[in-house]
Amino acid sequence: MIQFEFSVVPSIVKKEARTTYITGLSSAQEEKHENVFLSFMREHHCSNLEDQIEEYKASMDSVDNETINLSASEGAVLAAIRKERNRTIAETMERCGLSRASVTRAIASLKEKQKD
Predict the structure, then answer these.
(1) 75, CA 20 to 30 Å: which among 6, 13, 51, 65?
(2) Tens digit of pLDDT for each residue in 44-72?
């Protein structure tokens, strides 16, 4: 792996970050400017760790979700809202990996379950 050349812990690069990864990697290999690549990898590792922590927290919330009978989408949306109450639908979509329709349905369902 190319990441080993730069003594970086190997990481899966998400599709939305691929262009920045390739640009930084090219710069590091061709011009011997490692800083752009290393900075990208550091930020990417931090982002991956934050995502994994959030997924873990959401999985811990799933115990509560099972008690009140939430779907996976409802549980993910609820966890995202609990983390940041002022999150927009677009941000929730991105955070949960769900479509706008799925997020909207999950919110409506959560509101309905709250009434019960």
Answers:
(1) 13
(2) 888 888 887 887 777 666 545 555 678 88
- CB count in 10 Å sphere of residue 33: 13
The CATH 1.10.10 portion of the chain extends over: 68-116
Fold of 68-116: Arc Repressor Mutant, subunit A (1.10.10)
pTM of the model as a whole: 0.44
Q: What is the 3-state secondary structure (H, E, C) of the chain?
A: CHHHHCCCCCCCCCHHHHHHHHHHHHHHHHHCCHHHHHHHHHHHHHHHHHHHHHHHHHHHHHHHHHHCCCCHHHHHHHHHHHHCCCCCHHHHHHHHCCCHHHHHHHHHHHHHHHHC
Q: Do residues 61 and 75 make contact, with C-beta atoms less than 8 angstroms apart?
A: yes
* Spatial separation of the C-alpha atoms in residues 18 and 42, rounded to whole Å: 14
